[in-house]
Design brief:
mainly alpha, rod-shaped
């Protein structure tokens, strides 16, 4: 065999191998590569979509956080104002109640003072009558009367 015939035979075999590969082997490989590329593209698109959704979700979360912080601050301010008003009302009620108690105590003290004066007047009157009885039962003597009056003074 000569080089030309071998070369020609190798060319024919090579051509048949290329035709076989192009008809039977290459289409499934190309199809698999195309499917893989499509899956990768879909995955990238899904990742971009998820990234956009995540970004919008983060934005909504931030907006809600700002809104809730604002509401919380408002509610805290309202609660503080209400607490202060309740405290002021309680102070006013306590002051009013205290003044009522003081007035009642003063009135009671005044009544007890009046009652004590009445009791003292009764006792003084009783002692005066008792002293007068003792003076009238005995004879009139200045020394004895002075002694009785001194005792009466000590009893008062």
């Amino acid at each position: 065999m000569s080089i030309n015939a071998t070369f020609f035979a190798q060319m024919v075999v090579f051509f048949l191998l290329v035709m076989f590969t192009m008809k039977l082997v290459w289409p499934p490989i190309a199809k698999a590569l195309d499917e893989r590329a499509q899956k990768i593209a879909e995955g990238l698109a899904a990742a971009d979509k998820a990234k956009a959704e995540l970004s919008s979700a983060n934005r909504r979360v931030e907006e809600e956080l700002v809104k809730s912080r604002t509401e919380t601050a408002g509610r805290l301010a309202d609660a503080e104002r209400r607490a202060l008003s309740i405290i002021e009302e309680a102070k006013a009620k306590a002051a009013e109640e205290g003044s009522k108690i003081v007035a009642a105590a003063k009135a009671e003290a005044e009544q007890q003072t009046v009652k004590a004066r009445e009791v003292l007047r009764e006792q003084v009157a009783a002692l005066a009558v008792k002293g007068a009885e003792q003076i009238l039962r005995k004879e009139v003597n200045a020394g004895v009367h002075a002694d009785l009056l001194n005792r009466l003074k000590t009893e008062l």
